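Hi,

I'm pasting everything inline rather than attaching a file, because the server keeps stripping attachments. The sequence lines come first, and each chain or strand is labelled.
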Amino acid sequence: MAENILEIKDLTFSFRTYGGVVKSVRDVSFDVREGEILGIVGESGCGKSVTSQCILRLNPEPPGFFESGSILYKGEDIVKKSDREMRKIRGTEISFIFQDPMTSLNPTMTVGKQIEEIFVGRKGMSRKEIKERTLEILRLVGINEPERRYKQYPHELSGGMKQRVMIAIALVGKPSIIIADEPTTSLDVTIEAQILDLLKDLREKMNTSIILITHDLGVIAKMCDRVLVMYGGKIAERGTVEEIFYETAHPYTAGLIKSIATLDTSKDHKLVPIDGTPPDLFSPPHGCPFAARCEFAMKVCYERQPEFHQLSPEHTCACWLQHPYAPKVDIMKGLEQEAKK
Amino acid sequence: MTKYILKRVGISLITIFVLVTAVFFLARLMPGGPFNDPKLSEAARENLSAYYGFDKPVLEQYITYLGNLLSGNLGFSTKYPSQTVNQLLASSFPYSADLGIRALCLAISFGLVFGIMSALNRGNGIDLFFVIVAVIGTSVPDFIMGALLQYFFAIEWGLLPIAEYKGFAYTILPSIGLGFYTMASVSRIMRASMLEVVQQDYIKTARSKGISRFRVTWKHQIRNAIMPVVTILGPTVAAVLTGTFVIESLFVIPGMGKYYVESVQNNDYSLILGMTVFYGAFLVFCNMVVDILYGIIDPRVRVAGK
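And the predicted assembly:
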């Protein structure tokens, strides 16, 4: 089995606001293995972006702060590092691809300069080598006429092209981990497929680990080796991609799967939405954060945090339904459908 | 680019033509005339009118004026009979421009630095201090600012000369008095703009590259934040360089400021027109320079201009 290169333990990250402390990420633990694509899935505000930005310390601090936990990268704790120390990691050890390529590139700087900037203040490469490296990376991410693109400004490129530039920025420093925060959300479907193929391809070529954050289960199914499902700042379920889709154990994951339409969905088949809204993270519930929206919720769910149940070597799930005393229900069908029978 | 500039020059000329026409007729619509002195006899008044050509039909005067304007002749002042408007401008503009440039240099450099410092220290004491300075600068009128400067620096502490314009020491107080408002507004705009840019996604991208904080601020934040400041610079430069009535009167500087007010009071048609055309042309020119600067700073404008 591949080695862990990133280990996150009991991470709790909060923001101080005028309204009080928002606990965005609560007791999150996971690890990233060499060369794998790890998916993090969840709805808006579930803490997936904040978690990923913690890894590079990109959340504004203050108002954000680490309440507890550690992020071990190559044996060193990122949580304890200063900004100066973080600079050595950013870009060359761990890099980031942002959600919206339209706004994530500086409009007043040429594409080439924005890629080369990674090397500013780092030793060991001449100007010419840096330029060659940049052109090579542009070619690698599938940009035609790299010599011309090198001198162009972001507004002269299409959306898909800009995202390729973002990927080039993330790749040029040869990082061992790339964090892609919804890299295809703002692109249309054909471009999305191209960009995802590119990422997959690059993983094969460079053996980079990728943390892929998305709310699209389709993307997860296509791309990932392992998946984390996050809800309300906590991990709800984790496992290999097969386990998540075929041996779904958490009602929230089941809800997500039930709410997607596929090509074989027939006309009379109704998609099932998850009713309600995510919990208020100013005062997170005592029990399971999903309890209020869960059709299987029991008394215990509202009162005590569910513990992680180990279902297989990879598969764990934080749900009281997994407890030996819990009633056995088919979460993929749901109570209503069960009652109809 | 050449085509763009030519187009802008063409539009500028049309603007100035419309300005001249409007001011020419509006000035003559004002009650009274240039020779209203009750001591003048009727005959003398008619003589003077004939001498300056004011007895001719207005349309003929207008065409004559346009002809003269094309050859760069702004006509004779009726208030200062021995001097042409060209001579009046030539003798006063250098003072106003000299003072204006000093004021602008002060205003822009301090304004930008204050704005940037303020934004980088958002929410703490340094920010508060610069915000207070900016609020004072934009809300205290120039005659109070000028008088206060004179009172403290010249009278109370005797550090600097109180008035006149005869050397470097004399220029300090009026430059501050004139530039303070501009400095304050530059500082406010720069602060707001910096705070807006810092929330942009590309700043986060820049931070994720592991470059120094200084470089993120300098190359990514300031470069993008400076646009709104450049925008206000056009009209500001024109206004500051062509003199202000209040500061020039307070510090007894022989600049252009007083002619704006005097020419209208005296119905001095040629001088009103001369001042307006000069100021208008200058303003149009400054705005054109700003538009070109825009293209240099922001590549997106460059393409649109082609």
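DSSP finds twelve helices and twelve strands in chain A.

If the labels don't parse on your end, tell me and I'll reformat.
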